[in-house]
Amino acid sequence: MIDIRVLTPITTEDFRDDSPLNETAPIGCKISTITLQRGPASVESAIDEVLAAPGVIDAACRAEADGCDAVVIDCMLDPALEAAREAVTIPVVGAGEAGMKVAATFGDFSVVTVLQRQEPAFQRLARQYGLAGDMVSVHGIGVSVLDLEQDREASIEATIRAAKVARDRDSAKSIVFGCTGMLGYAAPTAEALNWPEECVIDPLMNAINVAFLAIKSGEKTSKDDHPFPDRKRVVGFEEWTALNNLMSGR
Q: CA–CA separation, 1 vs 215, rounded Å?
């Protein structure tokens, strides 16, 4: 059985229904989930990313120590993705990187996300992943991460409206959701667009599938590309056992 740890880099528990994860995971795949003990309530800004980073690194180390086969960072902004890859040898998949790359395989794509303020972050990620020429637009639906489930039907309707603008005005050939909290929005959005479901990417399920295939193919995190950090003293993170073990030497 392949064990994938889904690392949700926020402190808010039960902010969405996670039951679809194991229900739709590949056969032979077990999903375990974890949130942070310390950090932001949600990740919607660069400040939130920084606040989440120590917990992401620590949780990635713990996942490897627990015998997990891969880690998925459950956030489209990919907080601490490169740092987590430095910390472990198992594959670490960022929902943002994996989602945007699969969206680009269909041609020009748009990101439909929670808040419009995230547009610069997605532009930065598109450049980082070599996809700046493929991402044609970013559309926020005006609903924060933690409010997505307060009125799920209204959130899905807003998502569909934004997706139709991306299709009709921006000529997007695919949509990737800019928030993993939109779990389960893909099917109704694809139906409303009259698109095949694979053209509307649910980033969390996509990242799990990417991680699963990476494990099946025997991939590891390259220590040439992501070498372990040099040993050094770190002050102020004494309770982060895994993080301190990493910095003091493996």
A: 11
